[in-house]
Specification:
Elements lengths: L2 H9 L12 E5 L2 E4 L4 E4 L2 H4 L8 H11 L12 H13 L6 E5 L2 H16 L3 E5 L8 H6 L17 E4 L4 H4 L3 H18 L6 E6 L2 E2 L5 E2 L2 H14 L2 E5 L23 E4 L10 E5 L1 H5 L14 H14 L3 H21 L3 E7 L2 E9 L4 E2 L1 H13 L2 E2 L1 E3 L5 E4 L7 H19 L1
Parallel strand pairs: 3-16, 5-6, 5-7, 7-10, 10-11
Antiparallel strand pairs: 1-2, 2-3, 4-12, 8-9, 11-12, 13-14, 14-15, 14-18, 17-18
Helix pairs in contact: 3-11, 4-11, 8-9, 12-14, 13-14
The chain binds pyridoxal-5'-phosphate.
Pyridoxal-5'-phosphate binds next to helix 5.
């Protein structure tokens, strides 16, 4: 065992899982470098964060310039970077999202979004969707059901949270239409048998389920949720923490749908690697949340906000390329699906692509061993990929937006080879 791994084990809580044993001393664009100069292309993007690639020069310069001015406020004084970032967010977030608050992590943004919904509706209940991942704090883990393991050891979780099915057509062996119908019927049953809608403050949904296996919400499902929320005065909250900032080749997944949320939670790619998250809603709603009803020490850190503003300044120009990359990647993965019996399903939105590996196409039995093989094979050849889904059998394919066509083809080519090697 080398020295860093041993020292890591001596002092770092083992509860925090690391995807690889790579030891990285420098990162730039797609590439992670170890101290011997070996390099790996990071198609994990630091778990869906570095959408612009590592250490994007515009982001680094903005952070550095802010470091030289002021690096902390703790909400004691006002500063440009906070307002400048919020002004940019107001320009790119879905219609009707006008004002923002900031936090440090996705889980915190989700907590704040739900608190805002509760306060402004005067209700207590939350409806969440099976397969969602919203974070690991006690509130957010209550809404998280991508895998039951996330709650092991922490029961009881919060009360007045109801979890209903999210359409998983592939896993259920249904058409998309049937899956939507089934999920909506379950929601109707919830309101009939367990809780009346007048108790519900928020309906919390990822427009593409991430950790849960990269399931995009079918458009009619989101349209129906919007209609149900409108009918009952429920706040529709989109968790765009993983889907946001170009990951779906648009600013937000909401841009793919004809549905606007009442509240959004943002994080991950927002500052391309510095810790920042945000929640946003209409001015009316946010202004109804009085001074002191929520707060933060580090949320909206000046350096993180300056970096985040730079992300928005450079990302717009990359979105057309991201759309092209997405088309190219889906076309290549469809070819893989045709030639590899291990590939059961290819799904996703933009550059958020899930490739589900199965032991048997007819029964759709998940094959996590296939994923582990592909991961080890590609890692050995310079490509980092990570899984998603409760069984760890879905390739979470999330290239940075700065990936070239050639780099994309190389990465998918390696996955192709790895699958052939597994199937041999
Ligand atoms: C959709 C979604 N929401 C919330 C979170 C939690 O974010 P964080 O780990 O920054 O608390 C994640 C993290 O993976 C996520 O993907």
């Amino acid at each position: 065992m080398n020295d860093l791994i041993r020292r890591h084990g001596d002092v770092i809580a083992p509860v925090i899982a690391f995807d690889t044993t790579l030891q990285i001393v420098r990162a730039e664009g797609l590439w992670l470098y170890d101290r011997n100069g070996n390099r790996w292309a990071d198609f994990a993007c630091g778990t869906a964060v570095t959408n612009l690639g590592h250490n994007h020069p515009a982001v680094v310069d903005a952070a550095r310039a802010q470091l030289d001015k002021v690096m902390h406020s703790g909400c004691v004084f006002r500063y440009d970077a906070l307002v400048e970032e919020a002004e940019r967010l107001a320009r790119i977030t879905p219609d009707g999202i006008e004002k923002f608050g900031f936090a440090n992590s996705g889980a915190e943004a989700v907590e704040a979004a739900v608190k805002l919904a509760k306060y402004t509706t005067g209700r207590q209940g939350v409806v969440a969707f099976r397969g969602a991942f919203h974070g690991r704090t006690m509130g957010s883990v209550t809404y998280t059901t991508s895998s039951a393991k996330y709650r092991d050891g922490y029961h009881p979780v919060l009360g007045s949270v109801w979890v209903v099915p999210f359409p998983h057509p592939y896993r259920w062996g249904m058409s998309e239409e049937q899956a939507v119908e089934h999920a909506l019927m379950e929601l109707e049953m919830l309101f009939r048998h367990e809780v009346t809608p007048k108790n519900i403050a928020a309906m919390l949904v990822e427009p593409v389920q991430g950790e849960g296996g990269y399931y995009p919400a079918p458009a009619p499902f989101l349209t129906a949720l919007r209609e149900i929320c409108d009918r009952h005065g429920i706040a529709l909250v989109f968790d765009e923490i993983q889907t946001g900032f170009g990951r779906t080749a648009e600013w937000f997944a909401a841009d793919h749908f004809d549905v606007t949320p009442d509240i959004v939670a943002l994080g991950k790619g927002i500052a391309n690697g510095l810790p920042l998250s945000a929640y946003g809603a209409s001015a009316d709603r946010i202004d109804a949340w009085p001074v002191g009803a929520h707060g933060t020490t580090f949320g909206g850190n000046p350096v993180a906000c300056a970096a985040a503003a730079a992300v928005i300044d450079v990302m717009g120009d990359l979105l057309p390329h991201a759309r092209e990359l997405s088309r190219r990647a889906f076309a290549r993965f469809d070819e893989l699906a045709a030639s590899h019996p291990t590939v059961g399903d290819v799904r996703g939105l933009g550059l958020m692509i899930g490739v589900e590996l199965v032991a048997d196409r007819d029964t759709r039995v998940p094959d996590p061993e296939a994923f582990r093989h592909v991961q080890a094979y590609t890692l050995e050849r310079g490509l980092v990929i990570i899984p998603c889904g409760p069984d760890g059998n879905v390739i979470r394919f999330i290239p940075p937006l700065v990936t070239t066509d050639e780099e994309l083809d190389w990465a998918i080519g390696l996955i192709d080879e790895a699958l052939s090697d597994y199937e041999r």
